[in-house]
């Protein structure tokens, strides 16, 4: 059973929806950071920084720092600003790979780490197994990790 199949149905559907929607989002969206979007929308609306600040309920100086990327924006502030610009802020992670692929890749990496630790100790005692045996140990450890994925995958 895959990691996704183990999730409650509502969570599974949410993740699948996010993945599908994020995959359709244009890549160019990364080229326009939030501070540039704020400025572009404000200017398109023919609104001054002072007017935006009043509508958003924050100081004009903060709007200026936002638009010049001189402040680390909080999500709550960004929501206020975009609401004042007649926009709804959408925060959406774009999956770089599927959940299953991420778990499989991490299980493979973690299995190699676990086996390397053991074989390293064995090598110190001149008992290091041959490469074929090490490969089998890695596959076995990977299967163990994948049989019941847990937070153990992300330790170390």
What would your notes on this structure say?
With 156 residues, this protein is mainly alpha-helical. It has 2 domains: 26-84, Orthogonal Bundle (434 Repressor (Amino-terminal Domain)), CATH 1.10.260; 99-154, no CATH class. Helix content is 64%, strand content 0%. It is built from 8 helices and no strands. The chain has helices at residues 3-6, 9-24, 34-44, 49-56, 60-67, 75-84, 99-124, 131-147. Helix 4 crosses helix 6 (75-84). The longest helix is centred in the last third of the chain and has 26 residues, at 99-124. The two termini are 25 Å apart.
Structural topology:
Elements (H helix, E strand, L loop, with lengths): L2 H4 L2 H16 L9 H11 L4 H8 L3 H8 L7 H10 L14 H26 L6 H17 L9
Helix pairs in contact: 4-5, 4-6, 7-8
Briefly say what this structure is.
The protein has 156 residues and is an all-alpha fold.
Keywords:
single chain, 156 residues, mainly alpha, 434 Repressor (Amino-terminal Domain), elongated
- What do the pLDDT scores average to? 87
Strand-pairing-aware structural class:
mainly alpha
Listing every helix as H and every strand as E from the N terminus to the C terminus, the arrangement reads HHHHHHHH
Low-confidence spans: none
| Computed Rg | 24 Å
Q: At the fourth CATH level, what is the homologous superfamily of the largest domain?
A: lambda repressor-like DNA-binding domains
- Here the CATH topology of the largest domain equals 434 Repressor (Amino-terminal Domain)
Taken together, the total number of domains comes to 2
- Our count of helices gives 8
- How many E strands? 0
The biggest beta sheet is recorded as: none
The CATH class name of the largest domain reads Mainly Alpha
């Amino acid at each position: 059973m895959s990691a996704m199949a183990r999730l409650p149905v509502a969570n599974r559907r949410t993740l699948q929806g996010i993945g599908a929607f994020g995959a359709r989002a244009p890549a160019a969206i990364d080229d326009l950071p939030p501070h540039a979007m704020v400025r572009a929308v404000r200017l398109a609306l023919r609104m001054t920084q002072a007017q935006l600040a009043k509508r958003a309920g924050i100081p004009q100086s903060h709007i200026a720092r936002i638009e010049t990327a001189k402040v680390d924006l909080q999500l709550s502030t960004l929501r206020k600003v975009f609401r004042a610009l007649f926009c709804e802020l959408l925060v959406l992670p774009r999956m770089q790979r599927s959940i299953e692929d991420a778990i499989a890749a991490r299980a493979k990496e973690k299995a190699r780490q676990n086996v390397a630790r053991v074989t390293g100790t064995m090598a110190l005692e001149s008992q290091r197994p041959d490469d074929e045996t090490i490969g089998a140990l890695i596959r076995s450890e990977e299967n163990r990790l994948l049989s019941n994925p847990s937070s153990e995958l992300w330790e170390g």
